[in-house]
Amino acid sequence: MAKPATPAAPSPPALRRAPAGLSLVAGAMGKRTADEFRAVSPNSGEDIPTPYFAAGAADVEAASRAAWEAFFDYRNRPAAVRAAFLEKCAENIVALGDDLIAVATTETGLAPARLVSERDRTVNQLKLFASVLREGSWVNAAIDHGDANRRPLPKPDVRRMLRPLGPVAVFGASNFPLAYSTAGGDTASALAAACPVIVKGHPSHPGTGELVAHAIAAAVAQSKLPAGVFSFLHAGAQRETAVGIELVRHPCVRAVGFTGSPAGGMALAREGSSRPDPIPVFAEMGSVNPVFLLPNALESQAASIGEKLAASITNSSGQMCTCPGLIFGIRSDGLETATRAISEQMNQLAPQTMLSRRIRATFIKRTSEIAAAPGVQVRGGSPEPGHRAQGTSHQTETKFPIRCSATLFRTNFESFKNSPTLLEECFGPAAVLVVCENEDQLITAASMIQGSLTASMFAGAADAAIAGQLLATLELRAGRIVFNGVPTGVEVCAGMVHGGPFPATNQPHTTAVGHHAIERWCRPISYQNAPSTLLPPELREENLPQVRRRVDGVWIEPAKPTKDAEKPDTASAAKLKK
Amino acid sequence: MAKPATPAAPSPPALRRAPAGLSLVAGAMGKRTADEFRAVSPNSGEDIPTPYFAAGAADVEAASRAAWEAFFDYRNRPAAVRAAFLEKCAENIVALGDDLIAVATTETGLAPARLVSERDRTVNQLKLFASVLREGSWVNAAIDHGDANRRPLPKPDVRRMLRPLGPVAVFGASNFPLAYSTAGGDTASALAAACPVIVKGHPSHPGTGELVAHAIAAAVAQSKLPAGVFSFLHAGAQRETAVGIELVRHPCVRAVGFTGSPAGGMALAREGSSRPDPIPVFAEMGSVNPVFLLPNALESQAASIGEKLAASITNSSGQMCTCPGLIFGIRSDGLETATRAISEQMNQLAPQTMLSRRIRATFIKRTSEIAAAPGVQVRGGSPEPGHRAQGTSHQTETKFPIRCSATLFRTNFESFKNSPTLLEECFGPAAVLVVCENEDQLITAASMIQGSLTASMFAGAADAAIAGQLLATLELRAGRIVFNGVPTGVEVCAGMVHGGPFPATNQPHTTAVGHHAIERWCRPISYQNAPSTLLPPELREENLPQVRRRVDGVWIEPAKPTKDAEKPDTASAAKLKK
Questions:
Q1: Chain A contacts of B128, Cβ < 8 Å?
Q2: Where is pLDDT greater, at A548 or B497?
Q3: Long-range contacts of B180-184 (CB under 8 A, 24+ apart)
Q4: Closest CA to A215 of A191, A240, A194, A238
Q5: Does A437 touch chain B if contact means CB atoms closer than 8 Å?
Q6: Interchain contact, B485 vs A156, CB within 8 Å
Q7: CB A199 within 8 Å of CB A233
Q8: Residue of A153, A155, A525 to mutate for B, most B C-beta atoms under 10 A
Q9: Is the ipTM reported for this complex over the cut 0.85?
Q10: Do the bridges between strand A377-381 and strand A407-412 make them parallel or antiparallel, or are there none, so unpaired?
Q11: I need a labelling partner for B498 at 20 to 30 A (CA). Which of A110, A253, A357, B492 fits?
């Protein structure tokens, strides 16, 4: 018997491989506007020739309305359809290949190898959320069956699950042009949750954003979803902040994801909460990521700890949200050894490229403030004026490569205690080493730390007592506590919390990375005595065997899939539809 | 062989059975202060003789500091210890017997039978959270084991769970003097989460609050917990709002639970978010609880629907947060029948007692505003001046029983659309029936509703299409959607959501009732490569078989308890301690 011919693979979509400079509103290219801007190449300091045109108020309106219309369709698409759509996004981004990496390299000054690995992370995040959707437990379903015979009152049937909030506006980060930008964590988790997404493009990497946006829009079309599920709006020139504010104020936008500066995040949070109908703004902002070096760890591993820290501080020019900014230790030979290791590594570093003039200017301002604090010395790195003299304002300087030098500052506990500026984030390759005289000072220092994404400690076996004390304090101040490792490198997994108390974020009950990130775009809804046909598929009695949920107080695991059930997702999609 | 003698039951604590008028600060009675106030008996309108003394700033300070100190101990107590403590609270409240019901009846004017059932709910909520703690899955643990051999980077061991925020200030509700007050849902869930609690006493039922506070404080002592785990502060006279504001501003207070008016809730939310270290304020505020009567349902059950609605609107003088305030239907004989049924039931009602002069004054103000809206008529109830003429200010009137009459207003869709006042809550036994001409008007009306705790629809089999359309809109506007039933009566279960979009609450991702309420007092924390001894017990490898959690992406159920494991909780507590 002749084998049936394998159907020809569908031809890949014609992806845009060079930016047009235009926004993408519900699948349609925007128009040129008066608000033209250009990106800057950090490696040369020169403008990149491609002109970009900022979205107008009409684009914001059109994208928001289209997202709202699309929401009523998209939120009812079976989980498997959304999963396949996310995988299609991933596939299309991969298909952009070196074209995407080249544009991103030029726009950000980040090394191509770093960008390739970031692209892979972006793609894996999309796939992760596809798997989260297929597994299904994320909706946190709870079903309590009714009991008409209960006295004194009959017991109603009550079923609860997470449901999507509506269209989400995403403000990507400059430091993760792929993994935390157009198709980054916020976009992937919001689309997974069944929320349409409108991305406010970052003016530092508009071409990177636009190419990725076309990859997503192509996936929307391939998946036969309403075009309003995704829009991308360029923001720059006179419209750089206006596009974002208009989005946060728009009645059709129901939640906001932001990654960036505390000033920007808090301004958007205020906009969100002063609407007539307040909406949540999830802002990830600044973080000092303190590191504590405990005595026993320093006794045996001081040099290696110092090397790891130096690499962590200077990785991607320190432009990581989890970059260590404060290091604490108790005066000892070990601490000297660690300090020397950090300094030596920094001393050998050539000046590094930063993402933008604005970030460099802020870095120089912050390092100057730190250097000026009483009792603070420069202990390592290259603080010589040669690297700093290009000016401190991003508006006046031009044509210089955008570079900075790594710096290790050093101070003692008393000076630290009296200089509030040392508690603030310094975004870039700099850290302050605080030398304490004893364990009490170390614990007191920990209790002064602002809310942070991470807190780390290097602890040897004999450090157990002080480590326990420190942990009790750090648990109140950080989202993730790292032992014997550096905070940079955020594993994407169910156990991850990338969040933390203010000012690291304004919503410490959530995470921006990992499985649980999907929850922020949702709220729970209860359905009481609802007819099965009106329930979301996940709560229907006939679908109960498919996903794990809590039924009458007992957790029920899904039935083991049969061979039949292992067929492609379209089958399970159809099943869920019934 | 002689059976061993059953050990004598420990003698019950000497519970205070009459209020002393004093605050309870970390187990110690407060002092008399200059800010003396009295509660009012709603049934007589007379002051109740017992003098109460509002807490001073020093009491707020002492209670907050003690809570902070206690937190570091309490949060490390095994779940089974906290569970036993909650059960002890329940037991002590039951032991107050009729003394508690008598005080509450006098202070609130609520019927003793209602208060007994509310007391039972309060006690059951405490027991529920004890069972939630024993079952253990609420911490939402996720464990991802590390892999040193992963390339390009080793995979860290990352473990996450919910951890308590710290001391919680609870502002109880006037309308639930037991189930949503001193030992109510917020207190029970916060104590369960391992957060110490400071209750700001409600000035309308200070004696009720104080007796319950002593029952909890006795349980704290019996459970050998630090006294700072619970404090109760009287607030009245010149200190009525100051006590609360000082609590929300105190650095040791880490979260706030509030149930009351939108003005009060939003004021506290602003206080919470304008701190240098913002804290979450969970405010449950006003809700209109719309009810939609669909054509087919009205054809066969109009009279019975009307009777159910009348009972729901007038239950406890309409002083329920889920009391129906807006009723929508399409002009029909059935709608007339339902209207008549509501009106007739209201017409037969004698004037009802309200909780306080302030609530009555607001009710009269709101019903006057509604009555004055163009196109609104009084359709049922007793709107004659006799019941309203006692004055409208809670400051000037005295010595009259605090009573009001139930009212059914009626208007049409056009008038509804043009009168924003009809969208606002009217707290008390009144509802507005909006007569629509067709399904389009009904759906448009639904889309105008403010965020609400509940939305209900009565739907017959032939109403499926319109019910589906309506549901799509109501899912964006309510926390719980009720089919063929009234919204009053909130089942305490895992499937319950008692929450909803603004202005019903300011934090729609949470619930104030049911298992999931415990989550609001927590945030997730990740521990990366942590030594087992420093991990919370729930995340330690050796305890993995005890509670369900997600391990390396797979949900793991606890091992079936052996006979040995079924022994009393002290055993499992000890086991967890290791």
A1: none
A2: B497
A3: B180/B259, B180/B512, B181/B205, B181/B208, B181/B209, B181/B212, B182/B208, B182/B209, B182/B212, B182/B213, B182/B216, B182/B232, B183/B89, B183/B93, B183/B122, B183/B126, B183/B212, B183/B215, B183/B216, B184/B122, B184/B125
A4: A191
A5: no
A6: yes
A7: yes
A8: A525
A9: yes
A10: antiparallel
A11: A253
Q: Using an 8 Å Cβ cutoff, are A365 and A329 in contact?
A: no
Q: Out of A532-546, B68-82, B107-121, which region has the weakest mean confidence (pLDDT)?
A: A532-546
CB contacts < 8 A, A to B, total: 192
Q: What is the pLDDT of residue A95?
A: 97
From A408, A407, A384, select the one nearest A335 (Cα to Cα).
A408
The answer for residues whose C-beta is within 8 angstroms of residue A142's C-beta and 6 or more apart is A159, A160, A161, A549, A550, A551, B493, B494, B495, B515, B516
Q: What is the DSSP letter of B465?
A: H
Residue A577 has pLDDT above 60, yes or no: no
Angle subtended at Cα A313 by Cα A312 and Cα A317, rounded to the nearest 5 degrees: 105
Continuous H helices in A32-184? 57-74, 79-95, 97-108, 112-135
Sign of CA dihedral A36, A40, A41, A45: positive
Residues of chain B in contact with residue A494, where contact means CB-CB under 8 angstroms, are 142, 144, 160, 550, 553
Inter-chain residue contact B526 with A501, CB threshold 8 Å? no
User: Which residues, 6 or more positions from B237, have their beta carbon under 8 angstroms from its beta carbon?
Assistant: B35, B36, B37, B54
DSSP B166: S
Q: Look up residue B551 and give its two tokens.
A: 């391990």
pLDDT tier, A256 (very low <50, low <70, confident <90, very high otherwise): very high
**Which residue shows structure tokens 């003088």?**
B317
Contact between A216 and A43 under an 8 Å Cβ cutoff? The reply is no
Q: Tell me the C-alpha to C-alpha distance, in Å, between residue A410 and each of A347, A363, A375.
A: 15, 17, 8
pLDDT of residue B547: 67
Q: Do B423 and B433 meet the contact criterion of CB atoms below 8 Å apart?
A: no
**CA separation for the pair A400, A414 (Å, rounded):** 39
- The pLDDT tens digits of the residues spanning A99-136 come to 999 999 999 999 999 999 999 999 999 999 999 999 88
What DSSP assignment string belongs to B511-577? -SSSGGGGGGGEEEEEEES--GGGS-GGG-GGGGGGS-EEETTEEEPPPPPPTGGGS-HHHHHHHHH
Catalytic residue numbers of A, as ranges: 284, 321
* A163, two tokens: 């449901």
A553 touches chain B (CB under 8 A): yes
Tell me if A383 sits within 8 A of A371, measured CB to CB. yes
Residue range B159-216, pLDDT digits in tens: 999 999 999 999 989 999 999 999 999 999 999 999 999 999 999 999 999 999 999 9
Look up residue B104 and give its two tokens.
């509450």
Residue B388 has pLDDT above 60, yes or no: no
Contact criterion met (CB below 8 Å) for B499 and B510:
yes
Range with lowest mean pLDDT among A437-446, A555-564, B438-447: A555-564
Length of chain B, in residues = 578
For every residue of B323-346, DSSP letters joined together read: ---EEEEESSHHHHHHHHHHHHHH
| Tokens 């208009």 belong to residue | A246
Nearest residue on chain B to A452, judged by CA atoms? B525
Average pLDDT over residues A441-447: 98
Helix A185-192 vs helix A79-95: crossing angle, to nearest 10: 150
Instruction: Yes or no: say if A376 and A410 are a contact pair by the CB < 8 Å rule.
Output: yes
**pLDDT value at residue A552:** 73
DSSP B65-113: HHHHHHHHHHTTS-HHHHHHHHHHHHHHHHHTHHHHHHHHHHHH---HH
In this predicted structure, what is the pLDDT of residue B5? 54
Pick from B135, B155, B483: which is nearest to A491 by CB?
A: B155
CB atoms within 10 A of CB B53: 23
**What pLDDT does B556 receive?**
72
Token pair in block for residue A100: 């995407």
Decide if A528 and B482 are in contact by the 8 Å CB cutoff. Answer: yes
